[in-house]
């Protein structure tokens, strides 16, 4: 039986992208186009993972409420994303991403999420535990909700207590610190700022990250990937070290690119690709996404992008 991919979305939202020709301060700005998406990093991961079709069940576990919660559910359904949600009486937040299409500036305006009660948190926990079975993937994307303990990811892993279940983590702050110090996820994917915060370092160059990954990072974590924005990414995969580069592209909107990277990586892992192919899928999805105003992938742009990706094997343990 194929594994199920459980995407845990602690901070859902309606993501509204507004395209404005030339954004100006202090005057009314009228968008040329407005488009809504199911928001929260896990939904972006799901969109990226499902690109091109997938034989595995993919489900987003989250907490939704009010009219905005209903909109998230409807938008997800329209995108072919299964949602397993806890219903609450508080309205799900709305986030606005203002894009100045002339100057290519992006202004994300994110509402704060609601603070969890112990009862709702317990319901979410039981919902996740009730669906996860041997061989499944459990993916935590984004910051944890207010009221969610820093050790929540570790707590879920401990309660699942099944070495065949693969935990993949893309988070930050104290939650990332707790995961790294107290558990052994199958994969960690973070950006350069999050990496430097985690290790209290000031690394900049890809080779500096590679050296640090080799000498300082817990070897028990099988896959550890660091995205570096325009510099590409570096990774330790099964003890091998890689540097990824993509050709320069016309970048329009970088929002969600890290999530698209993770979605591509998961797809490669599910297809049992080799490490190079897994990484190429990740960076191809991310680089394709930045070429659109909205979170999006098309086969044509993906193919053009994929063929210009370079993955160099640098070191081997």
Can you walk me through this structure?
This protein is of the alpha/beta class and 317 residues long. Helices cover 35% and strands 27% of the residues. The strands form 2 sheets. Strands 5-4-1-8-9-10-11-12-13-14 form a 10-stranded mixed sheet, sandwiched between helices. Strands 3-2-6-7 form a 4-stranded mixed sheet, with helices on both faces. Helix 5 (173-182) links the parallel strand 9 (166-170) and strand 10 (187-191). The longest helix is centred in the C-terminal third of the chain and has 15 residues, at 275-289. The chain is globular, with a radius of gyration of 19 Å.
Give a short summary of the structure.
The chain is of the alpha/beta class and 317 residues long. Helix content is 35%, strand content 27%.
Please describe the structure with a list of short key phrases separated by commas or semicolons.
317 residues, alpha/beta, ten-stranded mixed beta sheet, four-stranded mixed beta sheet, 10 helices
SSE order, one letter for each helix or strand? EEEHEHEEEHEHEHEHHEEEHHHE
Main pleated sheet: 10 strands, mixed
Can you count the helices?
10
* Helical percentage: 25-40%
What's the mean pLDDT score? 94
- Sheet/helix structural class: alpha/beta
Give the topology.
Elements: E1 5-8, E2 13-20, E3 33-39, H1 41-50, E4 58-65, H2 66-78, E5 82-88, E6 94-100, E7 105-110, H3 118-131, E8 137-141, H4 152-160, E9 166-170, H5 173-182, E10 187-191, H6 192-199, H7 206-216, E11 223-227, E12 233-237, E13 240-245, H8 257-270, H9 275-289, H10 299-306, E14 310-316
Parallel strand pairs: 1-4, 1-8, 2-6, 4-5, 8-9, 9-10, 10-11
Antiparallel strand pairs: 2-3, 6-7, 11-12, 12-13, 13-14
């Amino acid at each position: 039986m194929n594994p199920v991919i459980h995407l845990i979305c602690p901070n859902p939202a309606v993501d509204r992208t507004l395209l404005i020709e030339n954004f100006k301060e202090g005057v009314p700005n009228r968008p040329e186009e407005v488009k809504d998406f199911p928001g929260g990093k896990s939904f972006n991961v799901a969109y990226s993972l499902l690109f091109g079709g997938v034989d595995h069940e993919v489900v987003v576990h989250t907490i939704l409420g009010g009219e905005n919660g209903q909109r998230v559910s409807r938008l997800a359904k329209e995108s072919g994303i299964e949602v397993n949600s806890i219903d609450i009486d508080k309205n799900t937040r709305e986030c606005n991403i203002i894009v100045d299409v002339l100057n290519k500036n992006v202004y994300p305006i994110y509402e704060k999420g609601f603070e969890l009660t112990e009862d709702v948190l317990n319901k979410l926990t039981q919902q996740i535990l009730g669906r996860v079975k041997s061989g499944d993937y459990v993916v935590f994307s984004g910051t944890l909700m207010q009221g969610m303990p820093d050790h929540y990811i570790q707590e879920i892993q401990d309660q699942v207590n099944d070495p065949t279940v693969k935990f993949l983590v893309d988070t930050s702050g104290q939650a990332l610190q707790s995961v790294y110090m107290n558990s052994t996820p199958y994969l960690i994917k973070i950006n350069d700022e999050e990496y430097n915060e985690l290790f209290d370092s000031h690394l900049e160059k890809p080779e500096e990250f590679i050296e640090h990954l080799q000498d300082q990072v817990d070897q028990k974590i099988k896959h550890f990937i660091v995205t570096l924005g325009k510099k590409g990414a570096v990774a330790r995969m099964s003890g091998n070290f890689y540097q990824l580069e993509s050709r320069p592209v016309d970048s329009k909107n970088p929002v969600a690119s890290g999530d698209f990277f993770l979605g591509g990586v998961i797809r490669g892992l599910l297809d049992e690709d080799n490490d190079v192919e897994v990484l190429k899928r990740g960076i191809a999805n991310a680089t394709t996404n930045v070429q659109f105003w909205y979170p999006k992938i098309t086969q044509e742009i993906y193919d053009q992008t994929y063929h210009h990706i370079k993955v160099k094997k640098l070191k081997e343990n």
